[in-house]
């Protein structure tokens, strides 16, 4: 039976070998899955595998199986997802499947990408409250697949706030999802060890935006500006980025969006969203495009309006106002109806955004 990677447990037996980029199997047929194999499958973004119906101890496998793969992804299916979370899971699964195919040498099939991702992008532009929840929960940084989808969602969100027309912002969103598709062309060993890479491996890794650009240049429906933005999504205006070390006078305007979102998501690996925004404005102000960064900071902070927060002094309150000159220092209405302004003089910080 065919099961998603998330349903695998130790003791499952592979019915078919698992392949990635090489013609040699990543995991041979008949292997009994253990913790190491689960890490390998996650590292190589293998979305699903074929296993026996029983475990190595003779018990029947009780996990989730894929009943009808064709209908599950058929855009004409009458039972297509209705909620934004359904759209999200569809996009995540679709990207993982595509990434595995790219590792095997296939080109980008834009029809599949659009089918898997556009419903989510459209829904997220209307449901910004859902974006806020995903940021608070840290769902966009759990793994490379969810990171790609988060990159697309936040890129479309930012493009919308910068007043791009609807067609452009959807293209920018799709481009955000595909920005790191070039990672599929790297050695799987580099992906599994990142960020702990040797010098030569780091040099190879830094070339992935070029690989992404080459893959997307063959897609006629992707605009040149999106391709350039993806090529430059790790570049900084001061020339300290990669792979080309371009300065701000040579960067395409779409790269302002991608580099801002990319840097924000990188910071969120270790920091909560508001702390990541503070870091972004403190340490990347002269690396990123300032007007783009300012809009992004204000609009992301506005997503948290009305949320309850725990403060560093032990009090709780509600984010009630976002001042545009200093958006990361919001006004907090405490449970005692007192207004606190969070700034450097108050020495009070938001420890945690609370989710009901």
UniProtKB/TrEMBL annotation:
GO MF: hydrolase activity
A Pfam family it matches: HD_5
Annotated EC: 3.1.4.-
Protein name in UniProt: HD-GYP domain-containing protein
CDD domains noted in UniProt: HDc
Keyword terms: Hydrolase
Entries under SUPFAM superfamilies matching the protein: HD-domain/PDEase-like
Enzyme class: hydrolase
Organism: Terrilactibacillus laevilacticus
């Amino acid at each position: 039976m065919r099961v998603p990677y998330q349903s695998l447990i130790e003791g499952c037996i592979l019915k078919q070998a698992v392949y990635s980029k090489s013609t040699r199997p990543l995991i041979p047929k008949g292997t009994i899955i253990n913790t190491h194999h689960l890490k390998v499958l996650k590292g190589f973004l293998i979305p699903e595998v074929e296993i026996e119906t029983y475990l190595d101890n003779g018990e029947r496998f009780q996990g989730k199986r894929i009943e009808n793969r064709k209908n599950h992804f058929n855009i004409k299916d009458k039972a297509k997802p209705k909620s934004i979370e359904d759209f999200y899971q569809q996009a995540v699964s679709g990207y993982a499947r595509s990434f595995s195919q790219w590792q095997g040498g296939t080109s980008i099939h834009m029809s599949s990408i659009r089918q898997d991702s556009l419903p989510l992008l459209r829904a997220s532009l209307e449901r910004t409250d859902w974006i806020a929840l995903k940021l608070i929960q840290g769902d966009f940084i759990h793994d490379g697949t969810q990171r790609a989808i988060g990159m697309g969602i936040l890129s479309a969100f930012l493009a919308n706030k910068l007043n791009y027309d609807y067609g452009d912002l959807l293209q920018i969103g799709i481009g955000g999802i595909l920005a790191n598709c070039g990672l599929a062309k790297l050695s799987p060993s580099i992906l599994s060890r990142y960020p702990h890479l040797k010098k030569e491996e780091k040099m190879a890794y830094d070339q992935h935006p070029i690989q992404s650009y080459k893959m997307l240049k063959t897609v006629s429906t992707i605009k040149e500006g999106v391709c350039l933005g993806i090529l430059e999504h790790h570049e900084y205006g001061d020339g300290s980025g990669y792979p080309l070390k371009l300065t701000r006078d040579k960067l395409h305007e779409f790269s302002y969006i991608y580099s801002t979102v990319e840097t924000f998501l990188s910071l969120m690996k270790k920091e909560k969203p508001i702390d990541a925004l503070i870091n972004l404005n403190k340490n990347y102000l002269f690396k990123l495009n300032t007007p783009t960064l300012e809009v992004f900071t204000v609009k992301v902070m506005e997503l948290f309006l009305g949320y309850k927060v725990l403060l560093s002094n032990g009090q709780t309150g509600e984010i009630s106002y976002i001042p545009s000159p200093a958006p990361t220092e919001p006004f907090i209405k405490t449970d005692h109806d007192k207004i606190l302004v969070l700034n450097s003089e108050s020495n009070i910080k938001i420890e945690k955004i609370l989710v009901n």
